Amino acid sequence: MIASEASEPAAAESQLSAAVEKSGRLINLAEVLVKEKIGLVMEKMKVCTCQTCVSDITALTLNSLPAKYVTADKGKQSIQLDTYKKQYETDILAALTKACVRVKASPRHMKK
Hints:
This is Competence protein ComFB. The structure is a single chain. This protein is mainly alpha-helical. It has a domain at 29-105. Helix content is 70%, strand content 5%. It has four helices and two strands, in the order αβααβα. A two-stranded antiparallel ribbon has the order 1-2. The protein is elongated and about 45 Å long.
């Protein structure tokens, strides 16, 4: 679950920087942005937040979106991130919503 949605822009920049440092040269921005938004969407839709449901929603969402790889070139990174976020945020939120509906209707986890 995402720790704080209130500081979303700062947290997103931090996550993206960490992803770039961790991967070295190449990151899938779709994956980073899905992980950034999943907590908020799941909370709004009142979906179970167990690890199985989070993983299922993440997988369904990423499989429905095109991968968007960028290089870790510091000079262009910020511009690429901003452009991609503005361009695809609606698509990412729609894909997350569809995945949440599907998992909520048929969760794979054991009922307590």
